[in-house]
Amino acid sequence: MPAIEDTKISSWADEVDETSEDLPPPSEVIDNGLKIVTVYRRNEDGKKRHLISNLHSVMFCNLVADKPSKYIPPYMRDGAKGRGDAMGHRGQRDDSCAIRLSNLSESTQEVDLEELVRPFGDYSKLFLAKDKNTGACKGFAYIHFKHKLSAANAIAFLDGHGYDHLILAAEWSKPQVQQH
């Protein structure tokens, strides 16, 4: 059987002169989308060490301090009205298909309200005002229908309609007042 040669593989630190204060510069290699970064440093004992990092998704980002940024925040773009108007729609909603239903009993639940308005058409939002402490109905609700005709039919039928021993009042919802 042949003898196994005892060969010692030297490390990079053995090949660099120990008396030299200079460390090799950092290196970057990109191979098939894998970025390998090697950084050389000294540890607390003054021994030379190297750190190898493998980054799978390589993204290049050049930051130059001399050039101004081309990014403009949405509130500073043309047509914006200032802070808070990021997309131009904040605070604006279409209440033209919303109705206010009042004189509801305290025992009214959202399920009851859904059953009451479902025959008039599709709605996008239903809000039943409730007391924070008791959870009981405060006596009114807002329903946002998808179509104005559905909302008009609901008002025509529900205004003056008897429901849960009370006479309901239905009307078009008034636009929300903007507070500044």
UniProtKB/TrEMBL annotation:
<feature type="region of interest" description="Disordered">
    <location>
        <begin position="1"/>
        <end position="27"/>
    </location>
</feature>
<keyword id="KW-0694">RNA-binding</keyword>
<dbReference type="GO" id="GO:0003723">
    <property type="term" value="F:RNA binding"/>
</dbReference>
<dbReference type="InterPro" id="IPR012677">
    <property type="entry name" value="Nucleotide-bd_a/b_plait_sf"/>
</dbReference>
<protein>
    <recommendedName>
        <fullName>RRM domain-containing protein</fullName>
    </recommendedName>
</protein>
<feature type="domain" description="RRM">
    <location>
        <begin position="97"/>
        <end position="175"/>
    </location>
</feature>
<dbReference type="InterPro" id="IPR000504">
    <property type="entry name" value="RRM_dom"/>
</dbReference>
<dbReference type="Pfam" id="PF00076">
    <property type="entry name" value="RRM_1"/>
</dbReference>
<dbReference type="InterPro" id="IPR035979">
    <property type="entry name" value="RBD_domain_sf"/>
</dbReference>
<dbReference type="InterPro" id="IPR034240">
    <property type="entry name" value="eIF3G_RRM"/>
</dbReference>
